[in-house]
Amino acid sequence: MAQQTEMSRGSRLTRIRIGSAPDSWGVWFPDDPQQVPWSRFLDEVAASGYEWIELGPYGYLPTDPVLLADETRRRGLKVSAGTVFTGLHHGPAVWDRTWEHVSAIAGLTRAMGARHLVVIPSFWRDDKTGEVLEDATLTPEQWRHLASQTERLGHEVRERYGLDIVVHPHADTHIDTEENVARFLDATDPALVSLCLDTGHYAYCGGDSVKLIETYGERVGYLHLKQVDPAVLAEVRAQDMPFGPAVGRGVMCEPPAGVPALEPVLAAAEKLGVDLFAIVEQDMYPCAPDKPLPIARRTRAFLRSCGA
């Protein structure tokens, strides 16, 4: 505890820009009766002390850039990134469908003045039902497709929209464990593909975020701040539970109650000497509508105590 107190009272983190996302309000889908309305999310994220937000699932926030710009501006909010979902390991056959999905979101992201597009790989099992959709392990050919098509996506998104893609390792996808993240990074061009390091998902899959930053620091282009409850995670692993039910069980918890400790992660990121967004994402779908705001306020206060 003394070490954490000393660290939190250290020099301010000057290269880290803190934000939050619809995910921290229990928002996983463009439209769902269990989710808070978008206007309430914007009101509450601003009231929590955050300046930056992500777009979340496309269609949750208004897709009219003029309306969205007005709604965010009057609350003192700015957009850091959009999010897309891809299955690029399936190769060129899925490119047209992928680009149709990506282009609409990239256009809105650019219109909002953001510079990043978070790319989440497709799930190998359904995150709600647990239905196995495909093999959890990629073949060598699928790894080659994943690398080449992600590079293609990075090139096209930059050329057409001026955005950088940051690929998000995620539970129940093929980019998950330390081994698979390293394999993906080693197979892709650093000039085209960067990483969105989600501290919670990486811990969920057994990875060490500080070690990754220290090893692949030049590839880390974006952060999601999240923690895992170790006791719940042990149950999830023992039962081979899909990610959606695991979230419902409470596997992602409020900082600083879980792992990894965020102070050393932020300190390691600061040492990279580049400007980085660090967006809070506490997965908790579904959740009671009055639950997110108090957590968001406490989390923002905790991150301030860390110098962020």
From TrEMBL:
GO terms for molecular function: myo-inosose-2 dehydratase activity. InterPro entries: IolE/XylAMocC-like, Xyl_isomerase-like_sf, Xyl_isomerase-like_TIM-brl. The keyword Cell inner membrane does not apply. It holds the Pfam family AP_endonuc_2. SUPFAM superfamilies: Xylose isomerase-like. Keywords: Lyase. The keyword Coiled coil does not apply. It comes from the Bacteria. This is Inosose dehydratase. It comes from Streptomyces spectabilis.
